[in-house]
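[Q] Does anyone have a clean structure-token version of this?
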Amino acid sequence: MPSRIHLVRVYDLPPGTQNAFLVDRLWPRGISKAELKNVRWLKDAAPTDELRRWLHEQPERWPTFCQKYWQELLAHPEHVQPLLGAARQGDVTLVYASRDTEHNNAQVLKQFLEAQLTADDPGIELASPVCYASEFDKGPEHNA
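[A] Here you go.
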């Protein structure tokens, strides 16, 4: 199944993007609300301030951050329901502000949403979150 969930940095968002959701807890710097008038802000789908600050203090905590953020999302499924509903209908764009395009909450949220959507289809087996990919790619000598 091709991905229905796309990631775009807020500063690169093409005008007129449909089904776009800002998934950061804080409003992005230098962006007016008018610029994102067609983008729905789901700040509750972002990590809590506490978790966000915890990662910011030490970026090497990324794998643990991923796990903790998944736990937050599982504890509050109502925060992601608008995203899941939209993704079941078609393409969705998750909008974020981070300069780091690989290590940000939108990446984790995308993996979480894809796992939830896959769970809806009983014929598809769930994959491991991207945060743990390095732990599973250790070669045949480690897969005994």
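[Q] Thanks! Anything notable?
[A] The longest strand covers residues 5-9.
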